[in-house]
Amino acid sequence: MKICTTLCMLAMVLVMMSTDFITVMAVTESHIPTTLDGPFEPVTRRFDPSLRRGSDDLPMTHPRLRKNVTLNFPEQIALAISSPTSMWVSWVTGDAQIGLNVTPVDPASIGSEVWYGKESGKYTSVGKGDSVVYSQLYPFEGLWNYTSGIIHHVKLEGLEPGTRYYYKCGDSSIPAMSQERFFETFPKPSPNNYPARIAVVGDLGLTRNSTSTIDHLIHNDPSMILMVGDLTYANQYLTTGGKGVSCYSCAFPDAPIRETYQPRWDGWGRFMEPLTSEVPMMVIEGNHEIEPQAGGITFKSYLTRFAVPAEESGSKSNFYYSFDAGGIHFIMLGAYVDYNSSGAQFSWLKQDLQNIDRSVTPWLVAAMHPPWYNSYASHYQEFECMRLEMEEILYQYRVDIVFNGHVHAYERMNRVYNYTLDPCAPIYITVGDGGNIEKVDVDHADDPGKCPSPRDNIPEYGGVCKSNFSSGPAKGHFCWNKQPEWSAFRESSFGHGILEAVNSTYALWTWHRNQENYKENAVGDQIYIVRQPELCMKDLKPHNSQQSLPYNSNPKSSHAPTHLSQNSIIIFLGLLFIYGLYSQVKWS
């Protein structure tokens, strides 16, 4: 009996050591599909006509948008990852100015300090940083100009991975320090360490739908936010403010320039602060951040307000950068700067991909604002030029997931490369459904009479590379006549997504629609994304090698083969051996 008990305990220990075994059992018991079950037959969930397609923006007098601090106390506090051992803390002090004549304040007039430590109320370290102001100026009579409050950025360095820190920010000499906040650093990059939950949201805005999205997101308790562009929609206004509109060119056809009401940026910072002051938010620019002004200057708000790890990742531009979050390497790509294969961004991307050690960060996730794969009529084939320049290198280095926004709806693709189903290609997911004022997109390019003209959907940056399909069911046509085979699931609804990496090969993706706020186990779309390194990475170039990757010779494979890791095989053989011993004891 003792031998049997010992053998059973040993078996339990072996099973517990097998992450793969536990994951497979959990997937089996929960009946959540995996990408190994794909490619999936396309599914469309159409817009619910009982719902409104959108809502108006919240006014600046709304409690979540108005200023709630006095004098030079910090507001709009936000965190961003710098490295596994460092964190950016950003905030704003003072009052912005808006009118015909504005004078920037001296950014050095208020100090930039962060007190922090591992115990509440006990701050053992002080970090100091830089401060800056920016202006949005218009060379047209009657348009109002804007100059910001003081924007502070402090990098906290020498942090311990996987540790909670308490902090205050501000200027202690006034004194004007914030209330205490806290954050937790991510675990050290490793194939066994991952953030608990990563929220993914795009095209958020500041509407009542945006409020539902953020409230739902907070309820899901993320450890990081991936914001894939189009943040405030401040450019849906005239410089004098007033009421925001869902279609700028329709409402203001005679505007001399695409105007903005910059105080919406301040309102957005306050709106997000309860979340971003405790959870790092990683942003990438979208078209609504372009915001042209005098002298041909663009993106001034975006570039000034957000700290990103550009320098830390070898990038010379805040428009594209990379960072690690546990065992995930994220690459943030810029669609509104040069993306040609001969340009600086592509050169940086190639170097960054070559530097990745997949034995340390097995998961590779990319994000950019506009989607390359999109079956909605809105923005259809808009960024084909970027896809033609960059898709191949992302495929060659086996990027696992690509997140996008821009299209105001949800869509998850089957694994696809060059419009062909491929078991080693990335999963593309569009989450441009944050809730902005431009309303949800409902028309599909394959709906009767909804196929756009090649003259539609011209990008704000880059060329036009649209063409008819040269192969497959849509050969010779600009649009499919049914939902494309590479589109697995699409739905016109506002919401957000949560990515949970379970181990080095399994990650759970869940998309939450706003209509189902807080309902237990109620989700709009859910799937385990499964990496197959045995199939897809056997010929992958070693860390920092120049060797090229061969193209998969069988891209039409209808099912990604199932696999067992070495760990799972060892566990299985061990259990088999134990069962044999148990049988001998039982019958002896």
What does this structure look like?
It is built from ten helices and 28 strands. By secondary structure, it is of the alpha+beta class. The protein has a single domain (43-537), classed as Metallo-dependent phosphatases (Purple Acid Phosphatase, chain A, domain 2, 4-Layer Sandwich), CATH 3.60.21.10. The strands form six sheets. The protein has an eight-stranded mixed beta sheet with strand order 1-25-21-24-20-19-18-17, with no helix packed on it. Strands 16-15-14-26-27-28 form a six-stranded mixed beta sheet, covered by helices on one side. α1 (2-17) runs antiparallel to α10. InterPro entries: Calcineurin-like_PHP, Metallo-depent_PP-like, MPP_PAP, PAPs-like, PAPs_C, PAPs_N, Purple_acid_Pase-like_N. Residues 478-525 form the Purple acid phosphatase C-terminal domain.
Itemize the secondary structure elements and their pairings.
Blueprint: H1 2-17, H2 19-30, E1 43-45, E2 75-83, E3 86-93, E4 97-99, E5 113-117, E6 125-128, E7 130-132, E8 135-136, E9 145-147, E10 150-156, E11 164-171, E12 176-177, E13 181-184, E14 198-201, H3 208-219, E15 224-227, H4 248-251, H5 263-276, E16 281-283, H6 300-305, E17 321-325, E18 328-332, H7 344-355, E19 363-367, H8 384-396, E20 401-404, E21 410-413, E22 416-417, E23 420-421, E24 427-431, E25 487-491, E26 495-501, E27 506-513, E28 525-530, H9 533-536, H10 566-587
Parallel strand pairs: 1-25, 14-15, 15-16, 18-19, 19-20, 20-24
Antiparallel strand pairs: 2-3, 3-10, 4-9, 5-6, 5-11, 7-10, 8-9, 11-12, 11-13, 14-26, 17-18, 21-24, 21-25, 22-23, 26-27, 27-28
